[in-house]
DNA sequence: TAGTGGTCTAGACCACAGG
DNA sequence: CTGTGGTCTAGACCACTAT
């Protein structure tokens, strides 16, 4: 009735991390040493540590060894998007927030024309084969990729506008959309939790065992027409999503 | 410059799932067959499939084989909590929502006195060693565990109240709290994303590769005093979190 | 260059549930 | 009973990077 050896190894270090015997940044013994200590083959040790890597508790830094993972959360507030701003802001909201903490924000921006597909078609009330403008950005803090923000617009709305240019827009796309006559008055936020795709792992430099939150932000005009759908991919080890509610 | 064999195997089936060649519920070839097809050892096949299990794309059902995972999301609306309800509701909100879709909701309830600890202490503005009442529930749909809802209260507020009894409360703890003079007027929702603890895996019957969203709901009275902090653990493969915003 | 983790093999035995 | 996945071993070679 005993647990398999690799699970005992995992449980041992999971416990040491939970109780603080091992703290973030601390190094674990090498696979070789653990094989000796537990009297098992190295592959068995690897299976055990693999469990903890999958749980996001430790990371392998070759050829240094295994380390207890350190995490730092930035606050992510979807509601900020619908709060008033100065008419001519110096920076977009993300840059503002990061710069306020003394760090350096930056972007990579890319604009593409794509087929809507099922997810976007449903939210923007288009045909799945309709063309949408995808404004794809990766946001960086101090050069480290932090999250993905892909905004999508029906092409009829934004043709020939600034939104089509892969350049930084200090006042934000929402403002541009409003100037085009599509001011948003209502939005729906949907959050899914899943493991990242290989593409997301690549774009965000994610380690194994890092789940992501996918935040769909669909904006509607006063007449109820959806004009914008943003897909934000937030690595779980870097974000804390915050909402605020008031009773009515 | 070729990818390792186990990654090619993972990529092969990841692709077939993404493109719909393999659909949810479909079975994969056996480890033995794949070892033959790819000309590698069975352990190598296991490493490849292990990647996909970790990504939550497939599940192993011994001794049947590997299957493409099926997922179904229930809608989770934190904002509902601050919407008005009938004075004497027949069921709590969760049961109402589930029963409305023709399924059967149920609960397991357990009440414990615990030390607050760092997370709760910070949110309830207590000392980490202070005692709080933990009302721990697992919510089931058709007998399947669906999510965890652990509500916490400073003991001074709820001593001798119904909240201390491990019994179903149709009108909900928020109402009881209001009757005790601690009506909530404001709440903060925080959402974290991470891999589940072994305890959560056990309580929720989670498969490998299933991340969870942890939703902290902290409620405040009109005077700004925190009176309640609920920790909801939502398996990523079963939930879609939805908020709604209106421009002000 | 030494030592780390990353990959792979070719066996083996086991527990479990379906036919 | 048969075949599945689950676990384990004792080797081997490789790629990478800190020193």
From TrEMBL, chains A, B:
Single GO BP term: negative regulation of DNA-templated transcription
Ranges for domain HTH gntR-type: 3-71
Keywords from the named record: DNA-binding, Transcription, Transcription regulation
Single GO MF annotation: DNA binding
Entries under Gene3D superfamilies matching the protein: Chorismate lyase-like (3.40.1410.10), Winged helix-like DNA-binding domain superfamily/Winged helix DNA-binding domain (1.10.10.10)
CDD domains given in the database record: WHTH_GntR (cd07377)
Protein name: GntR family transcriptional regulator
């Amino acid at each position: 009735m005993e647990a398999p050896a690799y699970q005992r190894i995992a449980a041992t270090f999971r416990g040491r991390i939970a109780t603080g015997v091992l703290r973030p940044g601390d190094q674990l013994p090498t696979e070789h040493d653990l094989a000796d200590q537990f009297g098992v083959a190295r592959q068995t040790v690897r299976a055990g540590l693999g469990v903890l890597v999958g749980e996001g508790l430790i990371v392998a830094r070759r050829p240094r060894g295994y380390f207890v993972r350190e995490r730092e959360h930035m606050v992510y507030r979807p509601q900020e998007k619908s709060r008033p701003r100065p008419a001519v802001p110096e920076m977009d909201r993300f840059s503002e927030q990061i710069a306020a903490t003394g760090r350096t924000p930056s972007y990579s921006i890319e604009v593409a024309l794509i087929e809507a597909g099922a997810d976007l078609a449903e939210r923007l009330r288009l045909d799945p084969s309709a063309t949408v403008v995808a404004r794809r950005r990766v946001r960086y803090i101090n050069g480290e990729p932090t999250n993905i923000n892909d905004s999508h617009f029906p092409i009829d709305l934004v043709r020939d506008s600034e939104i089509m240019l892969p350049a930084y827009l200090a006042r934000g796309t929402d403002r541009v959309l409003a100037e085009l006559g599509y001011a948003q008055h209502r939005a729906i936020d949907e959050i899914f939790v899943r493991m990242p795709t290989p593409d997301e792992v690549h774009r965000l430099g994610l380690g194994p065992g890092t789940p992501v939150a996918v935040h769909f932000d669909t904006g509607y005009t006063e007449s109820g027409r959806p004009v914008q759908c943003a897909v934000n991919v937030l690595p779980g080890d870097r974000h804390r999503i915050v909402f605020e509610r008031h009773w009515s």
